[in-house]
Protein 1
Amino acid sequence: MVTLEAGLTLRNSNFSVVLSHPKASRVVISVPQDTLMPNDFLGSFARRKRGIHGRDRHVWPIVHDCVRLALKRSMRIDTVRFLFPRAFIDANREAAGGPNFDDETLGQTAYDAPELSSVYETYHGEIARLIGRSCRRFGSEKILFVDMHGFGVQPERLAPRTYDLILGTASRTTISHGSVDRSFAGYMRERGYTVFLPEEQPVCSEGDPYSAGHTTRFYSRRFGVNAIQIEIARRFRVREGEADGKRLAADMAEFFIANYA
């Protein structure tokens, strides 16, 4: 474990990187798919037979900047990043035999190699630990859990509109208290971002794109907290968009400070 500043610690355990504070935070962020490269593990484990294998590249630098910027203003954000390649473990899927809340991924499981169960369980154990201690200190109605992702291609379901951020709340079923999803979307729109905001009814018969995966739905139900999946467009996560990514991190940090400090 490494202590960075103002009590913020960095710890890596069983392919889960945890940035956390001695005291609980009202915001917990997970990053499940900005992982290591799969080639480092080829031949060692069974690949997942069903589901996407790609990485959400460079989501972590945006989240890391957000945490550090908030801390400069005395606001705590706890985060967990998963490192094991998605080709072998998709941390945003349920384990075999576990509860499934997302019909779009029905039949997909987190991993096919049973020896990887402890890696998956460590990641989700860290998320549960951080959210649990936050709820005990502040009450579930005052906690926000964010599952942070990245997307590369604008969804056809939303054409011709294009978006910088796509929120997923499973038709607002992961919003248990108030309207933080609407507040966040409005805040970011005022700062010039295009944001897709789900409502109670999907925008098309196939359902909203990125409508919140297993992690968002599971922890919303388990702890009764507000939970949002946030998908970040590729342009914020490439080298030539580094300045835009840093601005996005700063703007998200400002929202969290204004609402959860």
Note: The CA atoms of residues 26 and 260 lie 6 Å apart.
Protein 2
Amino acid sequence: MASSEPFSLEGIDRIPDPVAHVAAGTAPGSATPPAEPSPTRADRQRLARVLVVAAVAWVVAVVAGCGVRPDLGRPAVLGLLAALGLTLALGVGLVLRPRARGLPAGVRVVQHALWVVPAIFIAGALATGVGAGDEPLAWTSMRGCLVLSNLMALGPLAAAALLLRRSFLAAAGWRGAAVGALAGLAGTLGVHAHCPCAEIGHLLAAHGPPIAVGAVLGGLFGLARGRV
């Protein structure tokens, strides 16, 4: 019997709930917490300092073990080493230093780094190198420096991979490639401190490739591990 009151709620409990099956069901998926705790800002700063020191020590140790070039004090040699070192320091700051409100560098800055870094090396090699000698450029004269320069770049690459894992919120491939190019530049700088050959062809073909190799490896790492 219906209630005589126009706004009575009598009998409302007998109305079937149209979404009862939704409440009784299970969620389609559940969030999986990370397997390891995220480091605090202080933890990341301490880790960054340790890894930077380790990366520099790696390059220095390989150079010391293989020997420093005898003409290290020549202005052309010191000039190119200084230009590469300054490019490396500024590049790391521009690409990795947080901006306002902790946001990362813009994608355009990261993309420009991928051509500016090799361009500075090429310009320095052309400005300080000499023409080809009597012997043509050959694999036998290149392979030692290619192996050594990429070996030197491994330390900075490994340090960057440990520090920047799960750090890229966007454009992970571009950011990883830029960091990899800078790590490769560290190998280029190191091998230039060791190898006394000043021929432009040798500088470009044997000292410069770690920049490209580092960019490729860094880009792959960014895509695979930069965001997860």
Note: The chain has a mean pLDDT of 86.
Protein 3
Amino acid sequence: MKFVRLAGLVLLAILLGCSKPDPTIILGNWRAESFKLEGVKLPIAPSFEVTRNEMILKSPDGVPFQKLPLAAIKADNHEIELEFRNGFGVSLVFVVDSRDRVRFKIPMTGLHVAFDRI
């Protein structure tokens, strides 16, 4: 009986490890964490919303100011890539920490901007 339970747990672990990443995790509204600099919290990235067809950049008060059409949303391991339509192959890659938290690495700085689901 213990062997059957152990075999079942091993099979479940294998299936979960081989499951395809879910690109729909990125869908929804996201708010950037503020960056702390000597006692001042500064927003260093706009908030955004992702739908199946576009990424909508928003001001801190939630007002949309730029809509970017998407060609594709792809997932690979713990990363989700948003590819822009007519963007000459340009895309953004987010690291998924959890269903409610993603990170974006700012190119050439090594800094990460974390986003929390709203």
Note: Confidence is low (pLDDT under 50) at residues 9-16.
Protein 4
Amino acid sequence: MAIVPATKKYVQLPSVETRQPVGESMLQGMGGSVNFLLNSTEFQHTFKLNGPYKSANGKTYVDGTFIFDYAAEIYEVIMYNFIPGLSGFTEMDILYSGGTGSPFGSILSVKPEISFNDPHPSYVKIGDSRPTVQAPVLSINPFPVTAGAWLRLDITNTQGSGCKNAGIIIKWRPI
């Protein structure tokens, strides 16, 4: 079955006035608008490392956790870093638990990295390619999430002294 093309189309008053016939064009317009909203509805959560973060190397549960209220799919991961350190690279991992009592495991088959010598401020997202970054890769894209699932941030490596203000943005949409 074909999907009505997604369009941002406003319902016109003459097509819905009392005692006027309802036409296919109005229903197609409404269907296109609903599909537009479904395609453009997204949410995000940001795990933040405000200030100097070199001491976060090897830490788990950085900046708390995030719990999903309903089923969703994660489709984008963006790592950022504002002020570089003097050497090395920063690497982060996002771990997922299906709910209370379930173990955590990475949602990434490749963890994002930003090198100190990448032009800053810097970010890297799925699909990016530069010699001074490593783009994240979801283990399943989009990554399915159940209602009540948890996310957490672990820092697997940090740049040398001086690195400040980094984080990771998770973009998701309800399903």
Note: The chain has one helix and 13 strands.
